[in-house]
Amino acid sequence: MTSLSAKIQDVFDEPACDKNRGKDAKARKEGCSKPLTPGAAAGGCAFDGAKIVLQPITDVAHLVHAPLACEGNSWDNRGAASSGPTLWRTSFTTDLTELDVVMGQGERKLFKAIREIKEAYAPPAIFVYSTCVTALIGDDIEAVCKRAGEKFGLAVVPVNAPGLAGSKNLGNKLAAEALLEHVIGTVEPDDAGPYDINILGEFNLSGEFWLVKPLLDRLGIRVRACIPGDARYLDVASAHRARAAMVVCSTALINLARKMEERWDIPFFEGSFYGITDTSEALRNIAELLVKKGADPEILARTEALIAEQEAIAWKKLEAYRRRLQGKRVLLNTGGVKSWSVVHALMEIGIEIVGTSVKKSTLEDKERIKQILKDDNHMFEQMAARDLYAMLSEHKADIMLSGGRTQFIALKAKTPWLDINQERQHPYAGYDGMVELVRQIDLAIHNPIWSQVREPAPWDCQPAVKDEPPSTTSGTASLHALKKFAGTMADDFGEC
Predict the structure, then answer these.
(1) Lowest-pLDDT range, 80-89, 228-237, 268-277, 365-374?
(2) DSSP code string of 100-168
(3) What is the pLDDT of residue 205?
(4) DSSP for residue 457
(5) If we measure between CA atoms, which residue out of 288, 340, 342, 282 comes closest to residue 307?
(6) CA dist 114 to 48, 149, 206, 325, Å?
(7) Which stretches make up the Nitrogenase/oxidoreductase component domain (predicted)?
Protein backbone atom coordinates (compact mmCIF):
# COMPACT_ATOMS: atom_id res chain seq x y z
CA MET A 1 0.00 0.00 0.00
CA THR A 2 3.00 2.30 0.26
CA SER A 3 3.24 2.69 -3.52
CA LEU A 4 -0.52 3.26 -3.73
CA SER A 5 -0.32 5.99 -1.08
CA ALA A 6 2.48 7.68 -3.02
CA LYS A 7 0.46 7.46 -6.22
CA ILE A 8 -2.59 8.98 -4.55
CA GLN A 9 -0.47 11.83 -3.21
CA ASP A 10 0.96 12.38 -6.68
CA VAL A 11 -2.38 12.61 -8.50
CA PHE A 12 -3.73 15.10 -5.95
CA ASP A 13 -0.63 17.29 -6.24
CA GLU A 14 -1.74 18.35 -9.73
CA PRO A 15 0.15 21.31 -11.27
CA ALA A 16 -2.43 21.66 -14.05
CA CYS A 17 -5.15 22.40 -11.49
CA ASP A 18 -5.56 26.14 -10.81
CA LYS A 19 -6.95 25.45 -7.35
CA ASN A 20 -3.87 23.43 -6.42
CA ARG A 21 -1.45 26.01 -7.85
CA GLY A 22 -2.99 28.65 -5.61
CA LYS A 23 -2.04 26.79 -2.42
CA ASP A 24 1.14 27.21 -0.44
CA ALA A 25 3.68 24.36 -0.32
CA LYS A 26 2.31 22.89 2.92
CA ALA A 27 -1.30 22.83 1.75
CA ARG A 28 -0.26 21.36 -1.61
CA LYS A 29 1.55 18.52 0.12
CA GLU A 30 -1.64 17.58 1.97
CA GLY A 31 -3.40 17.02 -1.35
CA CYS A 32 -6.89 17.89 -2.49
CA SER A 33 -8.77 14.96 -1.01
CA LYS A 34 -11.01 15.10 2.02
CA PRO A 35 -11.14 12.26 4.56
CA LEU A 36 -13.82 9.77 3.60
CA THR A 37 -16.85 9.41 5.82
CA PRO A 38 -19.26 6.45 5.85
CA GLY A 39 -21.33 6.60 2.69
CA ALA A 40 -19.01 9.08 0.98
CA ALA A 41 -18.29 6.59 -1.82
CA ALA A 42 -21.99 5.97 -2.46
CA GLY A 43 -21.56 7.76 -5.78
CA GLY A 44 -18.81 5.32 -6.73
CA CYS A 45 -15.57 4.09 -5.19
CA ALA A 46 -12.05 4.25 -6.63
CA PHE A 47 -12.39 0.80 -8.21
CA ASP A 48 -15.61 1.90 -9.88
CA GLY A 49 -13.89 5.02 -11.21
CA ALA A 50 -10.99 3.02 -12.62
CA LYS A 51 -13.38 0.62 -14.33
CA ILE A 52 -15.27 3.54 -15.89
CA VAL A 53 -12.09 4.90 -17.48
CA LEU A 54 -10.63 1.61 -18.69
CA GLN A 55 -13.52 -0.70 -19.58
CA PRO A 56 -14.43 1.17 -22.82
CA ILE A 57 -11.07 -0.03 -24.24
CA THR A 58 -13.00 -2.62 -26.18
CA ASP A 59 -10.56 -5.35 -27.25
CA VAL A 60 -9.05 -5.81 -23.78
CA ALA A 61 -10.07 -8.44 -21.22
CA HIS A 62 -10.93 -6.76 -17.91
CA LEU A 63 -10.28 -9.13 -15.00
CA VAL A 64 -11.48 -8.14 -11.54
CA HIS A 65 -9.53 -9.82 -8.74
CA ALA A 66 -12.25 -9.92 -6.11
CA PRO A 67 -15.34 -11.68 -4.82
CA LEU A 68 -18.08 -11.93 -7.40
CA ALA A 69 -20.09 -8.91 -6.20
CA CYS A 70 -17.40 -6.37 -7.14
CA GLU A 71 -17.59 -7.29 -10.81
CA GLY A 72 -21.36 -7.70 -10.73
CA ASN A 73 -21.88 -4.18 -9.37
CA SER A 74 -19.41 -2.50 -11.74
CA TRP A 75 -20.18 -4.26 -15.01
CA ASP A 76 -21.66 -2.07 -17.75
CA ASN A 77 -22.01 0.93 -15.43
CA ARG A 78 -21.75 3.32 -18.37
CA GLY A 79 -23.57 3.36 -21.68
CA ALA A 80 -20.34 3.44 -23.70
CA ALA A 81 -20.59 2.04 -27.23
CA SER A 82 -18.20 0.04 -29.40
CA SER A 83 -17.93 -0.05 -33.18
CA GLY A 84 -16.13 -3.39 -33.20
CA PRO A 85 -14.78 -5.73 -30.51
CA THR A 86 -17.15 -6.95 -27.82
CA LEU A 87 -14.66 -8.59 -25.45
CA TRP A 88 -15.03 -5.70 -23.01
CA ARG A 89 -18.67 -6.74 -22.54
CA THR A 90 -17.58 -10.13 -21.18
CA SER A 91 -17.31 -10.26 -17.40
CA PHE A 92 -14.11 -11.75 -15.94
CA THR A 93 -13.53 -12.21 -12.21
CA THR A 94 -11.43 -14.48 -10.00
CA ASP A 95 -14.52 -14.91 -7.75
CA LEU A 96 -12.59 -15.13 -4.49
CA THR A 97 -14.32 -17.01 -1.69
CA GLU A 98 -13.77 -17.03 2.06
CA LEU A 99 -11.72 -20.23 1.66
CA ASP A 100 -9.42 -18.55 -0.91
CA VAL A 101 -8.85 -15.67 1.49
CA VAL A 102 -8.18 -17.86 4.52
CA MET A 103 -5.90 -20.27 2.65
CA GLY A 104 -4.01 -17.52 0.82
CA GLN A 105 -4.96 -18.76 -2.65
CA GLY A 106 -5.68 -15.34 -4.16
CA GLU A 107 -2.48 -14.86 -6.18
CA ARG A 108 -2.50 -18.45 -7.43
CA LYS A 109 -6.12 -18.10 -8.54
CA LEU A 110 -5.31 -14.80 -10.31
CA PHE A 111 -2.45 -16.34 -12.28
CA LYS A 112 -4.67 -19.24 -13.32
CA ALA A 113 -7.42 -16.84 -14.46
CA ILE A 114 -4.97 -14.88 -16.61
CA ARG A 115 -3.83 -18.12 -18.27
CA GLU A 116 -7.41 -19.22 -18.97
CA ILE A 117 -8.30 -15.86 -20.56
CA LYS A 118 -5.17 -15.97 -22.71
CA GLU A 119 -5.97 -19.47 -23.98
CA ALA A 120 -9.67 -18.88 -24.57
CA TYR A 121 -9.69 -15.33 -26.00
CA ALA A 122 -6.09 -14.35 -26.93
CA PRO A 123 -6.63 -10.63 -26.24
CA PRO A 124 -3.87 -8.07 -26.91
CA ALA A 125 -3.90 -7.22 -23.19
CA ILE A 126 -5.51 -8.09 -19.87
CA PHE A 127 -6.26 -5.40 -17.29
CA VAL A 128 -6.26 -6.73 -13.72
CA TYR A 129 -8.13 -4.70 -11.09
CA SER A 130 -7.32 -4.75 -7.40
CA THR A 131 -10.28 -4.37 -5.01
CA CYS A 132 -10.84 -3.81 -1.30
CA VAL A 133 -10.61 -7.49 -0.35
CA THR A 134 -7.43 -8.24 -2.29
CA ALA A 135 -5.79 -5.00 -1.12
CA LEU A 136 -6.59 -5.82 2.52
CA ILE A 137 -5.21 -9.37 2.35
CA GLY A 138 -2.08 -8.09 0.61
CA ASP A 139 -2.22 -9.83 -2.78
CA ASP A 140 0.62 -8.44 -4.93
CA ILE A 141 -1.18 -8.06 -8.27
CA GLU A 142 1.76 -6.18 -9.79
CA ALA A 143 4.12 -9.11 -9.23
CA VAL A 144 1.56 -11.59 -10.56
CA CYS A 145 0.88 -9.45 -13.65
CA LYS A 146 4.59 -9.08 -14.38
CA ARG A 147 5.17 -12.82 -14.10
CA ALA A 148 2.09 -13.66 -16.20
CA GLY A 149 3.11 -11.17 -18.89
CA GLU A 150 6.54 -12.78 -19.19
CA LYS A 151 5.07 -16.28 -19.15
CA PHE A 152 2.28 -15.79 -21.69
CA GLY A 153 3.79 -13.11 -23.91
CA LEU A 154 1.09 -10.46 -23.65
CA ALA A 155 0.53 -7.21 -21.81
CA VAL A 156 -0.94 -7.79 -18.34
CA VAL A 157 -1.67 -4.41 -16.77
CA PRO A 158 -2.17 -4.07 -13.00
CA VAL A 159 -4.73 -1.43 -12.02
CA ASN A 160 -4.09 -0.70 -8.35
CA ALA A 161 -7.26 1.21 -7.44
CA PRO A 162 -9.10 -0.61 -4.63
CA GLY A 163 -12.37 0.93 -3.57
CA LEU A 164 -11.10 1.78 -0.09
CA ALA A 165 -8.52 4.18 -1.60
CA GLY A 166 -11.13 6.89 -2.12
CA SER A 167 -13.79 8.28 -4.42
CA LYS A 168 -14.70 7.54 -8.02
CA ASN A 169 -12.78 10.59 -9.24
CA LEU A 170 -9.62 9.30 -7.58
CA GLY A 171 -10.16 6.00 -9.39
CA ASN A 172 -10.31 7.89 -12.71
CA LYS A 173 -6.89 9.37 -12.01
CA LEU A 174 -5.38 6.08 -10.81
CA ALA A 175 -6.56 4.43 -14.03
CA ALA A 176 -4.78 7.16 -16.00
CA GLU A 177 -1.62 6.46 -13.98
CA ALA A 178 -1.87 2.77 -14.94
CA LEU A 179 -2.07 3.71 -18.62
CA LEU A 180 0.92 6.02 -18.31
CA GLU A 181 3.01 3.44 -16.48
CA HIS A 182 2.17 0.29 -18.44
CA VAL A 183 0.48 1.10 -21.77
CA ILE A 184 1.06 4.49 -23.43
CA GLY A 185 4.39 4.61 -25.23
CA THR A 186 4.86 0.83 -25.45
CA VAL A 187 4.08 0.61 -29.19
CA GLU A 188 5.69 2.69 -31.92
CA PRO A 189 3.27 3.37 -34.81
CA ASP A 190 4.56 3.30 -38.38
CA ASP A 191 1.97 5.74 -39.70
CA ALA A 192 2.32 8.81 -37.46
CA GLY A 193 1.35 12.03 -39.22
CA PRO A 194 1.05 15.78 -38.65
CA TYR A 195 -2.73 15.62 -38.20
CA ASP A 196 -2.91 13.03 -35.39
CA ILE A 197 -4.68 14.00 -32.17
CA ASN A 198 -5.83 12.39 -28.93
CA ILE A 199 -9.25 12.94 -27.37
CA LEU A 200 -9.08 12.43 -23.60
CA GLY A 201 -12.01 12.01 -21.23
CA GLU A 202 -14.51 11.20 -24.01
CA PHE A 203 -16.50 8.05 -23.13
CA ASN A 204 -18.59 7.70 -26.32
CA LEU A 205 -21.81 7.49 -24.29
CA SER A 206 -24.65 6.34 -26.55
CA GLY A 207 -22.20 6.65 -29.45
CA GLU A 208 -21.76 10.42 -29.04
CA PHE A 209 -18.22 10.51 -30.40
CA TRP A 210 -19.47 9.03 -33.67
CA LEU A 211 -21.29 12.32 -34.28
CA VAL A 212 -18.01 14.23 -33.94
CA LYS A 213 -15.50 11.96 -35.66
CA PRO A 214 -16.95 12.51 -39.18
CA LEU A 215 -16.26 16.24 -38.76
CA LEU A 216 -12.61 15.54 -37.95
CA ASP A 217 -12.41 13.06 -40.84
CA ARG A 218 -13.58 15.75 -43.25
CA LEU A 219 -10.75 17.98 -42.05
CA GLY A 220 -8.21 15.20 -42.52
CA ILE A 221 -7.62 14.98 -38.77
CA ARG A 222 -7.03 11.47 -37.47
CA VAL A 223 -7.90 10.51 -33.91
CA ARG A 224 -4.87 8.51 -32.88
CA ALA A 225 -6.58 7.52 -29.63
CA CYS A 226 -9.89 8.38 -28.01
CA ILE A 227 -9.37 7.55 -24.36
CA PRO A 228 -11.40 5.69 -23.38
CA GLY A 229 -14.37 5.87 -25.76
CA ASP A 230 -14.44 3.03 -28.32
CA ALA A 231 -10.66 2.64 -27.95
CA ARG A 232 -8.36 -0.22 -28.98
CA TYR A 233 -5.33 -1.29 -26.99
CA LEU A 234 -2.79 -0.62 -29.76
CA ASP A 235 -4.25 2.85 -30.36
CA VAL A 236 -3.82 3.72 -26.69
CA ALA A 237 -0.33 2.20 -26.62
CA SER A 238 0.74 4.44 -29.54
CA ALA A 239 -1.06 7.58 -28.30
CA HIS A 240 2.27 9.23 -27.45
CA ARG A 241 2.82 10.02 -31.15
CA ALA A 242 -0.16 12.37 -31.44
CA ARG A 243 0.58 16.04 -32.17
CA ALA A 244 -2.16 17.59 -30.01
CA ALA A 245 -4.87 16.62 -27.53
CA MET A 246 -8.30 17.77 -26.43
CA VAL A 247 -9.51 17.08 -22.89
CA VAL A 248 -13.28 16.69 -22.66
CA CYS A 249 -13.48 15.90 -18.94
CA SER A 250 -10.54 17.41 -17.08
CA THR A 251 -11.98 16.40 -13.71
CA ALA A 252 -11.27 12.78 -14.63
CA LEU A 253 -8.12 12.84 -16.74
CA ILE A 254 -6.27 16.13 -16.29
CA ASN A 255 -3.26 14.25 -14.91
CA LEU A 256 -3.09 12.13 -18.07
CA ALA A 257 -3.14 15.19 -20.35
CA ARG A 258 -0.55 17.08 -18.32
CA LYS A 259 1.91 14.18 -18.05
CA MET A 260 1.62 13.37 -21.75
CA GLU A 261 2.50 16.99 -22.49
CA GLU A 262 5.52 16.79 -20.18
CA ARG A 263 6.82 13.46 -21.53
CA TRP A 264 6.00 13.68 -25.23
CA ASP A 265 5.35 17.38 -25.86
CA ILE A 266 1.65 16.95 -26.74
CA PRO A 267 -0.10 20.29 -26.07
CA PHE A 268 -3.70 20.09 -24.91
CA PHE A 269 -6.73 22.26 -24.25
CA GLU A 270 -10.02 21.64 -22.47
CA GLY A 271 -13.09 21.88 -24.65
CA SER A 272 -16.58 20.57 -25.18
CA PHE A 273 -18.57 19.04 -28.01
CA TYR A 274 -21.91 20.05 -26.45
CA GLY A 275 -23.64 22.90 -28.23
CA ILE A 276 -23.07 24.60 -31.56
CA THR A 277 -20.71 27.33 -30.39
CA ASP A 278 -18.59 25.01 -28.21
CA THR A 279 -18.28 22.40 -30.97
CA SER A 280 -17.09 25.07 -33.41
CA GLU A 281 -14.63 26.43 -30.86
CA ALA A 282 -13.27 22.94 -30.20
CA LEU A 283 -12.64 22.36 -33.92
CA ARG A 284 -10.85 25.72 -34.18
CA ASN A 285 -8.63 24.97 -31.18
CA ILE A 286 -7.69 21.56 -32.56
CA ALA A 287 -6.71 23.07 -35.91
CA GLU A 288 -4.70 25.86 -34.25
CA LEU A 289 -2.76 23.44 -32.04
CA LEU A 290 -1.92 21.27 -35.04
CA VAL A 291 -0.65 24.29 -36.98
CA LYS A 292 1.56 25.24 -34.04
CA LYS A 293 2.98 21.72 -34.13
CA GLY A 294 3.84 21.95 -37.83
CA ALA A 295 0.67 21.18 -39.79
CA ASP A 296 -0.14 23.10 -42.97
CA PRO A 297 -1.92 26.40 -42.08
CA GLU A 298 -4.47 25.79 -44.83
CA ILE A 299 -6.34 23.56 -42.36
CA LEU A 300 -7.51 26.73 -40.60
CA ALA A 301 -9.44 27.89 -43.68
CA ARG A 302 -10.92 24.43 -44.21
CA THR A 303 -12.00 24.36 -40.58
CA GLU A 304 -13.80 27.70 -40.87
CA ALA A 305 -15.56 26.56 -44.04
CA LEU A 306 -16.74 23.36 -42.35
CA ILE A 307 -17.92 25.30 -39.28
CA ALA A 308 -19.92 27.77 -41.39
CA GLU A 309 -21.57 24.93 -43.30
CA GLN A 310 -22.47 22.86 -40.23
CA GLU A 311 -23.66 25.81 -38.15
CA ALA A 312 -26.01 26.92 -40.94
CA ILE A 313 -27.52 23.43 -41.16
CA ALA A 314 -27.90 23.12 -37.38
CA TRP A 315 -29.46 26.56 -36.87
CA LYS A 316 -31.93 25.90 -39.66
CA LYS A 317 -33.06 22.72 -37.91
CA LEU A 318 -33.24 24.46 -34.52
CA GLU A 319 -35.49 27.26 -35.80
CA ALA A 320 -38.41 24.84 -35.73
CA TYR A 321 -38.00 24.54 -31.94
CA ARG A 322 -37.10 28.11 -31.02
CA ARG A 323 -40.67 29.40 -30.87
CA ARG A 324 -41.84 26.39 -28.80
CA LEU A 325 -38.97 26.58 -26.30
CA GLN A 326 -38.28 30.32 -26.05
CA GLY A 327 -38.39 31.31 -22.38
CA LYS A 328 -38.75 27.76 -21.07
CA ARG A 329 -36.95 27.29 -17.74
CA VAL A 330 -34.48 24.45 -17.19
CA LEU A 331 -32.97 23.17 -13.95
CA LEU A 332 -29.68 21.36 -14.60
CA ASN A 333 -28.72 18.93 -11.84
CA THR A 334 -25.48 17.43 -13.12
CA GLY A 335 -21.81 18.36 -12.88
CA GLY A 336 -18.40 18.36 -14.49
CA VAL A 337 -18.08 19.67 -18.03
CA LYS A 338 -21.86 19.47 -18.60
CA SER A 339 -22.41 22.10 -15.90
CA TRP A 340 -21.29 24.79 -18.36
CA SER A 341 -21.29 23.21 -21.82
CA VAL A 342 -24.97 22.20 -21.74
CA VAL A 343 -25.87 25.56 -20.15
CA HIS A 344 -24.24 27.40 -23.01
CA ALA A 345 -25.87 25.11 -25.55
CA LEU A 346 -29.40 25.66 -24.21
CA MET A 347 -29.07 29.41 -23.84
CA GLU A 348 -28.20 29.63 -27.53
CA ILE A 349 -31.82 28.91 -28.44
CA GLY A 350 -33.42 31.12 -25.77
CA ILE A 351 -33.92 28.63 -22.93
CA GLU A 352 -33.59 30.14 -19.44
CA ILE A 353 -31.36 28.38 -16.89
CA VAL A 354 -32.82 28.65 -13.38
CA GLY A 355 -30.02 26.64 -11.75
CA THR A 356 -27.07 24.37 -12.45
CA SER A 357 -25.18 22.05 -10.14
CA VAL A 358 -21.41 22.46 -9.83
CA LYS A 359 -20.79 19.54 -7.47
CA LYS A 360 -18.25 17.78 -9.74
CA SER A 361 -17.02 20.87 -11.55
CA THR A 362 -13.50 22.28 -11.49
CA LEU A 363 -12.67 25.92 -10.81
CA GLU A 364 -12.36 26.44 -14.55
CA ASP A 365 -15.86 24.99 -15.03
CA LYS A 366 -17.27 27.35 -12.40
CA GLU A 367 -15.58 30.37 -13.98
CA ARG A 368 -17.11 29.49 -17.33
CA ILE A 369 -20.56 29.23 -15.71
CA LYS A 370 -20.15 32.68 -14.14
CA GLN A 371 -19.24 34.16 -17.49
CA ILE A 372 -22.21 32.51 -19.20
CA LEU A 373 -24.92 33.09 -16.57
CA LYS A 374 -23.65 36.42 -15.18
CA ASP A 375 -25.16 35.39 -11.82
CA ASP A 376 -23.66 33.23 -9.07
CA ASN A 377 -27.11 32.65 -7.58
CA HIS A 378 -27.90 30.14 -10.32
CA MET A 379 -25.03 27.90 -9.20
CA PHE A 380 -25.44 25.40 -6.38
CA GLU A 381 -22.89 22.94 -4.99
CA GLN A 382 -25.46 20.44 -3.82
CA MET A 383 -29.23 20.66 -3.43
CA ALA A 384 -31.09 18.35 -1.07
CA ALA A 385 -33.86 16.22 -2.52
CA ARG A 386 -36.52 18.15 -0.60
CA ASP A 387 -35.22 21.45 -2.01
CA LEU A 388 -35.25 20.09 -5.54
CA TYR A 389 -38.79 18.86 -5.01
CA ALA A 390 -39.90 22.21 -3.60
CA MET A 391 -38.40 24.07 -6.54
CA LEU A 392 -40.06 21.80 -9.09
CA SER A 393 -43.43 21.53 -7.36
CA GLU A 394 -43.62 25.34 -7.20
CA HIS A 395 -43.19 25.37 -11.01
CA LYS A 396 -39.94 27.34 -10.93
CA ALA A 397 -38.65 25.13 -13.76
CA ASP A 398 -40.38 23.62 -16.78
CA ILE A 399 -38.03 20.64 -16.98
CA MET A 400 -35.13 19.11 -15.07
CA LEU A 401 -32.07 17.67 -16.80
CA SER A 402 -30.16 15.26 -14.57
CA GLY A 403 -29.06 11.70 -13.99
CA GLY A 404 -31.24 8.75 -13.11
CA ARG A 405 -30.84 9.17 -9.35
CA THR A 406 -33.02 12.28 -9.21
CA GLN A 407 -35.58 11.40 -11.85
CA PHE A 408 -38.15 10.35 -9.26
CA ILE A 409 -38.02 13.75 -7.58
CA ALA A 410 -39.11 15.31 -10.87
CA LEU A 411 -41.75 12.65 -11.45
CA LYS A 412 -43.16 13.14 -7.94
CA ALA A 413 -43.33 16.89 -8.61
CA LYS A 414 -45.15 16.10 -11.90
CA THR A 415 -42.41 17.86 -13.85
CA PRO A 416 -40.83 16.72 -17.14
CA TRP A 417 -37.39 15.14 -16.79
CA LEU A 418 -34.63 14.24 -19.25
CA ASP A 419 -31.59 12.05 -18.62
CA ILE A 420 -28.31 13.66 -19.72
CA ASN A 421 -25.91 11.55 -17.66
CA GLN A 422 -24.23 8.27 -18.52
CA GLU A 423 -27.45 6.24 -18.71
CA ARG A 424 -28.89 8.38 -21.51
CA GLN A 425 -30.20 6.71 -24.63
CA HIS A 426 -29.58 9.54 -27.12
CA PRO A 427 -26.26 11.12 -28.21
CA TYR A 428 -26.07 14.88 -27.63
CA ALA A 429 -22.56 15.78 -28.88
CA GLY A 430 -21.72 17.81 -31.96
CA TYR A 431 -24.05 19.77 -34.21
CA ASP A 432 -26.47 16.89 -34.79
CA GLY A 433 -26.36 16.03 -31.09
CA MET A 434 -27.44 19.56 -30.16
CA VAL A 435 -30.44 19.27 -32.44
CA GLU A 436 -31.29 15.93 -30.85
CA LEU A 437 -31.00 17.37 -27.33
CA VAL A 438 -33.38 20.21 -28.15
CA ARG A 439 -35.78 17.77 -29.82
CA GLN A 440 -35.84 15.56 -26.72
CA ILE A 441 -36.44 18.59 -24.46
CA ASP A 442 -39.30 19.68 -26.70
CA LEU A 443 -40.82 16.19 -26.64
CA ALA A 444 -40.54 15.99 -22.86
CA ILE A 445 -41.99 19.45 -22.10
CA HIS A 446 -44.89 19.18 -24.55
CA ASN A 447 -45.77 15.59 -23.78
CA PRO A 448 -49.55 15.63 -23.05
CA ILE A 449 -49.10 13.28 -20.11
CA TRP A 450 -47.99 16.19 -17.89
CA SER A 451 -51.26 18.11 -18.28
CA GLN A 452 -53.11 14.90 -17.48
CA VAL A 453 -51.18 13.95 -14.33
CA ARG A 454 -51.59 17.50 -12.97
CA GLU A 455 -55.38 17.19 -13.14
CA PRO A 456 -57.16 16.25 -9.89
CA ALA A 457 -57.65 12.50 -9.56
CA PRO A 458 -61.26 11.33 -10.12
CA TRP A 459 -61.49 10.09 -6.54
CA ASP A 460 -60.50 13.53 -5.26
CA CYS A 461 -63.55 15.11 -6.93
CA GLN A 462 -66.76 15.52 -4.89
CA PRO A 463 -69.80 14.99 -7.11
CA ALA A 464 -72.70 17.30 -6.42
CA VAL A 465 -75.54 14.84 -5.90
CA LYS A 466 -78.79 16.66 -6.68
CA ASP A 467 -81.27 13.84 -6.20
CA GLU A 468 -81.66 11.12 -3.64
CA PRO A 469 -81.34 7.64 -5.11
CA PRO A 470 -84.71 6.05 -5.78
CA SER A 471 -85.99 3.42 -3.43
CA THR A 472 -85.21 -0.13 -4.40
CA THR A 473 -88.67 -1.30 -5.33
CA SER A 474 -89.44 -3.85 -7.96
CA GLY A 475 -90.90 -3.08 -11.31
CA THR A 476 -90.06 -1.35 -14.60
CA ALA A 477 -90.63 2.16 -13.17
CA SER A 478 -87.91 1.67 -10.56
CA LEU A 479 -85.43 0.48 -13.24
CA HIS A 480 -86.01 3.65 -15.30
CA ALA A 481 -85.49 5.77 -12.19
CA LEU A 482 -82.11 4.10 -11.43
CA LYS A 483 -80.89 4.68 -15.01
CA LYS A 484 -81.85 8.35 -14.79
CA PHE A 485 -80.01 8.75 -11.47
CA ALA A 486 -76.84 7.05 -12.88
CA GLY A 487 -76.83 9.48 -15.82
CA THR A 488 -77.07 12.45 -13.46
CA MET A 489 -74.09 11.17 -11.43
CA ALA A 490 -71.97 10.80 -14.61
CA ASP A 491 -72.76 14.37 -15.65
CA ASP A 492 -71.75 15.68 -12.23
CA PHE A 493 -68.36 13.88 -12.35
CA GLY A 494 -67.68 15.63 -15.65
CA GLU A 495 -67.75 19.01 -13.88
CA CYS A 496 -64.88 18.07 -11.50
Answers:
(1) 365-374
(2) HHHHT-HHHHHHHHHHHHHHHH--SEEEEE--HHHHHHT--HHHHHHHHHHHHTSEEEEE---GGG-BH
(3) 85
(4) P
(5) 282
(6) 21, 9, 31, 54
(7) 45-443
Contact between 439 and 321 under an 8 Å Cβ cutoff? The reply is yes
pLDDT digits (tens, 9 = 90+) for 158-192: 999 998 888 888 899 999 999 999 999 999 999 99
Tell me the pLDDT tens digit for each residue of 436-456: 999 999 999 999 998 888 888
| Confidence check: pLDDT of 34 > 60 | no
Residue 128 half-sphere exposure, CB side, CA atoms within 13 Å?
32
Check if CATH label 3.40.50.1980 holds for domain 326-424: yes
- The strands making up 399-402's β-sheet, listed across from edge to edge, are 379-380, 352-357, 329-333, 399-402, 417-419
Please name the residues in contact with 265: beta carbons below 8 A apart, sequence gap of 6 or more. none
Q: Which CATH architecture has domain 196-314?
A: 3-Layer(aba) Sandwich (3.40)
pLDDT over 50 (residue 351): yes
> In this structure, what are the phi and psi dihedrals at residue 357, rounded to the nearest 5 degrees?
-80, 140
CA–CA–CA angle 56, 8, 166 (5° rounding) = 70
DSSP string, 211-242: HHHHHHHHTT-EEEEEEETTB-HHHHHTGGG-
Measured CA distances, 298 to 90, 280, 291, 303, 441 (Å):
45, 17, 9, 9, 39
Q: What is the CATH number of domain 34-182?
A: 3.40.50.1980
